[in-house]
Specification:
CATH architecture: 3-Layer(aba) Sandwich
Radius of gyration: 18 Å
Number of strands: 8
Distance between the termini: 11 Å
Number of helices: 5
Helix content: 25-40%
CATH class: Alpha Beta
Order of helices and strands: HEEEHHHEHEEEE
């Protein structure tokens, strides 16, 4: 999988909400106590999974801007449990539209949004438990609270390793 660029992500999110959104690549970001939300994508045609883990406050800001709420109103709506339908649908749309940038050069299809890691299952659960590749971003949203976003995936090397087995047979091993 090719890595999405901060520029592509910034451009996609900025176009979506009509405000400047800036993604800055970061080093390893330790887990925080901030509430997280997870977007699950499937790369076509390989079927591999990508998991996006983001601060709920960040996605709430982007979703709130999408529906026209100022930041203080976003904060009020994020405090409501369970999450209100308008905010949930707007976050879902943010995940969906961002799929064009999440997959890098490949086509990623948004399949599911969950609010707890226990609901990340199947191939996406495997990626969440043991990702081969992580892209960390600090994200700012003009006029809103920003946050952190991490893209987790299985990454296959561009040039796979070849190993000699026996006779004239070769085994292809894909290693993350």
């Amino acid at each position: 999988m090719s890595e999405p660029t901060p520029f592509a992500l910034s451009q996609r999110f900025s176009q979506l909400i009509g405000r400047k959104v800036t993604f800055v690549q970061a080093g390893v970001i330790p887990d925080t106590k901030a509430t997280q939300i997870y977007g699950i994508y499937t790369v076509v045609p390989s079927g591999t999974a990508i998991v996006v883990k983001a601060d709920l406050r960040l996605l709430g800001s982007v979703a709130g801007a999408l529906v026209g709420w100022p930041d203080p109103v976003v904060k009020e709506h994020l405090a409501v449990t369970p999450m209100e339908e308008i905010l949930r649908d707007a976050i879902y749309e943010v995940f969906n539209v961002s799929s064009a940038a999440i997959g890098g050069e490949e086509r990623a299809v948004f399949t599911k949004m969950v609010t707890s890691p226990i609901y990340v299952d199947g191939a996406a659960g495997d990626v969440l438990k043991k990702p081969c590749h992580r892209s960390y971003f600090n994200v700012s949203v003009d006029g809103y609270v920003g946050g952190r976003l991490t893209i987790l995936s299985l990454e296959v090397r561009k040039q796979p390793e070849l190993y000699f087995m026996s006779g004239n047979r070769l085994a292809l091993m894909l290693i993350c």
